[in-house]
Amino acid sequence: MSTQIPFLSFDYMHQQVKSEIQAAFNEVFESNLFILGNKVKLFEESYAKFNKASYCIGVGNGLDALIISLRALDIGVGDEVIVPSNTYIASLLAISAVGATPVLVEPRIDTYNINPNLIEAAITKKTKAILPVHLYGQACEMDNILLLAKKYNLFIVEDNAQAQGASFNGIQTGAFGNINGTSFYPGKNLGALGDAGAITTNDEKLYKKGLSLRNYGSQKKYYNEVKGYNSRLDEIQAAFLSVKLMHLNEWNEKRREIANLYFSLLKNTPEIILPKIAEGATSVFHLFVIRTNKRDKLQTYLAEKGIGTVIHYPVPPHLQEAYKEFGYKKGDFPIAEEIANTCLSLPVYPGLTEEKIKFTCLTIKFFFNSEIVF
Known about the structure:
The chain is of the alpha/beta class and 374 residues long. It has helices at residues 11-31, 38-50, 62-72, 90-97, 142-152, 204-214, 235-245, 248-266, 295-304, 334-342, 354-373; strands spanning 55-59, 80-84, 101-105, 127-130, 155-156, 167-168, 171-172, 179-183, 197-201, 218-220, 223-224, 288-291, 343-346. A hairpin with a 2-residue loop joins strand 10 and strand 11.
């Protein structure tokens, strides 16, 4: 059966901004300025303001944003960085890329975010930073994380790739850490039309280091102070992102409305575990993740009914082949494994109609009722 309700659709958002996007393309095309021009500068200023941060650095993608952030802090070989065991592998890859060691800490089973109560036990003399990931769009419990960072003199580097516009105790994610990375991969709440990312910080020295690192380690052309990267936000993507940024608050609110409808319609389905929002936190619902022990059967059933879903993520980082050198085995991080084995992401995007949300929820309920009958 063809998919009646895709997991993700850009149609509503892109139709809303189509004429503005086309005008932005034409402006860049006619300017003949394609690398580190006025569009990048304008977007950096706008995103810093949106994010309640002093500075923004546009880079090539979200992974580079984290790598450059860690490099700016001089984190490298022999250092340890605390990171949640339940995250997309890019969070760990950034740590590995600078030569440091990722130290995994389990999440809370209900919010899916790193459990602040478990962080202190993972801190050693080698620990240099905590890398909280605002997973699925919900802000981490940053008050306790900030206290630990202060107590042990640690840096904080936020992975804000999924939570643009979320907050904790009224402070925007991406503004807590010393320096932070985000992604504008097309599927993100603020998505480019290709790869893109950014760094945010309130520290001028880190800002200047980040500017240099993204551009071959150079502040002045042909003069290279450090070994840097070629990771510059494209002028054309910056122009597109500036257009979309003006609509982000509206689109995030639509995601919240969809999530609230899911909460309402699925709350009395005992076979489903709904996500929990931590006290003080908000979510922009980049993903709406439910959990069930019948996850695989449910996903197949929904697909048969034309409803798209995705598993974020089927294999936790510690069980990935890429990290076999650490010798992790099944059972080492049981909460991350439990989430990986039971999670299912339902469609959530601006333009998803109430009718389709209700159909999705009714189909889920019917699946479980059928299971009981048969």
